Amino acid sequence: MTKSPPPVLTPRAGKVVNTSEPMPKIVAVIPARGGSVSIPKKNIKLLLGRPLIDWVIKAARDSKIFAEIWVSTDDDLIAASAIKCGALVHRRAAHTATSTASTESALKDFADAHPDYEYMCLIQATSPLIRPEDFVEAMRIMRDQKADSLVTAVRAHRFLWSVDPTTKVAKAKNYEPLKRPRRQDWEGELVENGAFYYYTKAHWDATGCRLGGKLVLYEMAEHTFVELDSLVDWQMVSHMAYDFGYFPEDAPRQAPDMGGTAQSSTFAVGLATGFALAAGLAFLMGRK
């Protein structure tokens, strides 16, 4: 009698994955256009000695759940770097790589060329703090719940306010000032961190949108909410990556090039996370 393969223990969560269950075809795509304005060639700029896209490529690879990992780009240098990092390359159409093009247009361009998948994972190259087990745990949620799509988020304990543009009167949006909760008594807000998204082929074919249908959420660590829009952001994220990033055997840990100490690294983590969460929560301020 043929024995079933042994279960696999995921690194962080310590949960068992039954590898005897057939794995669907899961494809990862990483959009990486060459026209970054804030930081030129951001997607291949070195972060602790590694191209930015290498961080998510290696994390996806070592999750061992993806049949294929693609970088969708219009840029020759990014394409060459992606191949060197171990990814396949999709040459995206020019109209999907402009500063005004939507992510959905790039996803459609990719899906039209590569329709053979059951689940798609959109991974943002600008989220270098993703770990392999994040992909595994999120897919477990996706399949256990028989969901159509999944979004990643972090929990933020921030009080939100809005100001009426006419009267200039301020109003609390997510708590009652007369009943101001203590942090330990409040669940906070879940804020989309843009790290990665899962969706089924059936959902995409029906809607052309990455999110919708039966939508579930995977909560990630607060420090995974990062912004990489300036060189100051880059320096702070370098410290965060050193402390929290994923370092496979073929990409050993390298210290930040700032002469930082553990104390300055901790400060950078708190400062960067605070700035990023403030930016991420800003969109909520306009809700009625």
UniProtKB/TrEMBL annotation:
Pfam families from the UniProt entry: CTP_transf_3
Is Endoplasmic reticulum a UniProt keyword of this protein?
no
Q: Where are its TM segments located?
A: 267-286
Q: Which UniProt keywords apply?
A: Membrane, Nucleotidyltransferase, Transferase, Transmembrane, Transmembrane helix
**What domain of life does the UniProt record list for this protein's source?**
Eukaryota
Stored InterPro entries? CMP-NeuNAc_synthase, Cytidylyl_trans, Nucleotide-diphossugar_trans
Q: Which SUPFAM superfamilies match?
A: Nucleotide-diphospho-sugar transferases (SSF53448)
User: Under which name does UniProt file this protein?
Assistant: N-acylneuraminate cytidylyltransferase
- According to its UniProt entry, this protein's organism is Chrysochromulina tobinii
